[in-house]
């Protein structure tokens, strides 16, 4: 049975695509995974050419985070990102829709899961997963193996957001809106459900956050993780996902964070951002550059995403 829990009411219902659109998706995901990967990368090129708004977001983020790169290198990295993004959108559907257990077993490689098993022997766990393009496959694989609770944002009305939202709950996962009250979440973690936490969502001037450096630029960063960890006595295990052009994916679990939380919100947020930054430098084209990570600015600073970039 699919379980879906939402704690923030919305005035709009979740959009459902029409029957034809759903049929097209179902036919598409039955294709071989290597072909899906190639089709997805081609789709990414189309996004790159025509999605100017997200192209500007990616351009701005890359210039902020890699000031040492020239215009040609920035353009190349942006194109590589859109290809990786397109591949992930198509392959995520293909691997989790059609024969998901069989396909995931074939196309996923798992590293470091012993860290999860060891931590669960001693108590509760939080999986800290930054926004890399293969993120959804980590959630799918984990929720297949045990009940999981994760964060989401109220989906926009298009087929990709509908499909991703559906995939996050198809194996019994519980989706909690990112701005929801903590009480129910804490109860579920204390009850033994692993929490899938996304550390790099811009808070949008809501909730408790601090400005911590991310690629030497102040970035609004939630302070909730330290409080959740302290309240649930949960170990925090970093998790990243690497995508290959072949359609293979590797989910990597790392050793639990030590001396965290420290009790200092700024220090803890700086530690988290540094962990994410180090992972981004290993596979820069696969980070979610179309997110407005620097949307919320310190008081008095001008917005970073307001001006068009010509390319």
Notes on the structure:
The protein has a domain at 19-27 and 108-286. The model is unreliable at 1-15 (pLDDT under 50). The longest helix has 27 residues, at 71-97. The protein has a seven-stranded mixed β-sheet with strand order 1-9-8-2-5-3-4, sandwiched between helices. Strand 6 (209-214) and strand 7 (217-222) form a beta hairpin. The termini are far apart. 46% of the residues lie in helices and 15% in strands. The chain is of the alpha/beta class.
In a nutshell, what does this entry contain?
It contains eleven helices and nine strands. It has helices at residues 19-28, 33-50, 52-65, 71-97, 100-107, 113-122, 135-145, 159-167, 182-190, 224-232, 265-282; strands at residues 108-111, 124-128, 149-152, 174-177, 195-197, 209-214, 217-222, 234-243, 249-253.
Present the secondary structure layout.
Elements lengths: L18 H10 L4 H18 L1 H14 L5 H27 L2 H8 E4 L1 H10 L1 E5 L6 H11 L3 E4 L6 H9 L6 E4 L4 H9 L4 E3 L11 E6 L2 E6 L1 H9 L1 E10 L5 E5 L11 H18 L29
Parallel strand pairs: 1-9, 2-5, 2-8, 3-4, 3-5
Antiparallel strand pairs: 6-7, 8-9
Helix pairs in contact: 2-4, 3-4, 4-5, 4-8
């Amino acid at each position: 049975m699919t379980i879906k829990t939402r704690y923030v009411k919305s005035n709009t219902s979740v959009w459902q695509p029409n029957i034809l659109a759903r049929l097209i998706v179902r036919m598409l995901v039955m294709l071989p995974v290597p072909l899906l990967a190639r089709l997805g990368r081609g789709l990414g090129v189309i996004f790159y050419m025509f999605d100017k708004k997200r192209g500007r977001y990616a351009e701005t983020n890359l210039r902020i985070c890699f000031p040492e790169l020239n215009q040609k290198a920035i353009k190349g990295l942006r194109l590589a990102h859109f290809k990786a993004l397109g591949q992930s959108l198509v392959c995520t559907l293909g691997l989790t829709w059609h024969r998901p257990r069989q396909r995931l077993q074939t196309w996923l490689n798992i590293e470091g899961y012993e860290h999860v098993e060891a931590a669960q022997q001693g108590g509760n766990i939080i999986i800290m997963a930054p926004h890399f393009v293969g993120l959804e496959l980590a959630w799918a694989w984990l929720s297949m193996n045990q009940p999981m609770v994760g964060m989401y944002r109220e989906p926009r009305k298009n087929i990709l957001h509908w499909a991703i939202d559906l995939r996050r709950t198809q194996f019994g996962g519980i989706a909690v809106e990112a701005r929801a009250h903590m009480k129910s979440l804490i109860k579920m973690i204390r009850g033994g459900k692993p929490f899938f936490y996304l550390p790099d969502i811009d808070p949008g001037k809501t909730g408790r956050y601090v400005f911590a450096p991310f690629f030497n630029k102040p970035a609004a960063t939630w302070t909730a993780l330290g409080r959740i960890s302290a309240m649930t006595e949960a170990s925090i295990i970093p998790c990243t996902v690497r995508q290959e052009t072949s359609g293979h994916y590797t989910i990597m679990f790392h050793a639990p964070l030590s001396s965290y939380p420290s009790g200092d919100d700024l220090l803890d947020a700086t530690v988290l951002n540094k962990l994410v930054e180090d992972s981004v430098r290993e596979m820069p084209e696969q980070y979610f550059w179309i997110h407005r990570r620097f949307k919320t600015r310190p008081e008095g600073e001008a917005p970073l995403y307001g001006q068009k970039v010509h390319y």
